[in-house]
Each structure stands twice: as structure tokens, then as C-alpha cells.
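User
New here, help please:
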Amino acid sequence: MTEAELTNLFAHLGAREPAAWARSQINENIPQLARFLFLRQAWKLVVPEKDRTWIAQEMQEMNMDAGSRRSHRPGLAAFAEPRRKRRRSHARRARDAMVAFVGAVIPPR
């Protein structure tokens, strides 16, 4: 693939500075297309900083879980809490992994 074709592909995918991505892949032999596609997908999984809607969703899920396993023994609630904390959805685990990866790859400003 030529640099011009790669530039057009990056532009079509919505990359900022598509020519720079393409040039880097061609000249520096860095798989920038794979990197760009991975990072683009990773950022889709990250919850925006000011978005608090996920809190209500998590609380509702926890309440539903607690309601389906109600017990009349008061001591069991203490044992259920750590289990609930471990039961995060696949999307949250993926988001956390992506945030850690992106934090390691892209230096903070």
C-alpha cells in the first residue's frame, strides 16, 4: 500500500493528521493502522469523565442481584459485598484494561 493510499484510508477512518499516521507507518515501519484501529475502539469503551449514568446502572444491577438472593441471615450480607465488587461487567473490565493500556502508551499531558 502506498503512502497516498494509506493517507486516504486514515482520512476515511477519521484520523487527525492522516498523512502523519501514514508517513510514520511507511517510513518508520510502525504498524500505525493497527494502532489507530485499536485505540479508536478502546476510546469507544471509555466512559466520558463527566458521564455519571453508569453509576445508576451499576446500582440498579447490584440491587437486582441483591433482591434475587435475599437472605434472612444478617451476617451473609457482609460476605456478599466482595463478591458483588468482583462481578463487574465485561464492558467495564475491557474499559479498565483499555484505560490502563492507553495510559501506558500515551504519556499524560
Summary: The chain has six helices and no strands. The helical segments are 3-13, 18-28, 32-45, 53-68, 76-86, 90-105. The radius of gyration is 21 Å.
